[in-house]
Write a structure and sequence with these properties.
Helix content: 10-25%
Radius of gyration: 13 Å
Shape: globular
Low-confidence stretches: none
Mean pLDDT: 96
Largest sheet: 6 strands, antiparallel
Structural class: alpha+beta
Strand content: 35-45%
Length: 119
C-alpha cells in the first residue's frame, strides 16, 4: 500500500490501482455524509479532481493519484457513505483506476513515510 500527501491510499493489483482515503483523512473530516465518485471509463491525468467527499465539517476533493481510466467505482459508498467512516482502508475504497504508466505508483510514500507526514 502507498499513500499520497492528499491523504489517499493506493493498492496495486497488476496495472489497476484501488484508491481510497486514509483513516487520518476520515478522522480530520469527521463523519462522512456524501461521496461523489467518477464515472467508469472516465480518463484522468495524475492530480485531476476525480471525486468529492463531504462530511459534517467540510467538503474535500478526491484526486486521481495516477494517470489512467476509471475501471470500477464503489457504488456501495455512494449509497452508504458511513462505510468510509467504518472501514476507510477496506470496504470504503472509492475507485479503481487502470494506470497509463505503471511507474507512477512507485513515486508515492510507503506507510512509514506517511506516518511521519501525519505526526
Amino acid at each position: 500500500m502507498k499513500f499520497t500527501e492528499e491523504h489517499e491510499w493506493l493498492a496495486l493489483d497488476g496495472d489497476v490501482v484501488t484508491v481510497g482515503i486514509t483513516a487520518y483523512a476520515v478522522e480530520q473530516l469527521g463523519d462522512i455524509v456524501f461521496v461523489e465518485l467518477p464515472e467508469k471509463g472516465t480518463e484522468f491525468a495524475a492530480g485531476d479532481e476525480a471525486g468529492v467527499v463531504e462530511s459534517v465539517k467540510a467538503a474535500s476533493d478526491v484526486y486521481a493519484p495516477v494517470s489512467g481510466t476509471i475501471a470500477e467505482v464503489n457504488e456501495a459508498i455512494s449509497e452508504n457513505p458511513n462505510v468510509v467512516n467504518d472501514d476507510p482502508l477496506g470496504e470504503g475504497w472509492f475507485f479503481k483506476i487502470r494506470m497509463n504508466d505503471p511507474g507512477e505508483y512507485e513515486s508515492f510514500m510507503d506507510e512509514e513515510e506517511y506516518n511521519s507526514l501525519i505526526q
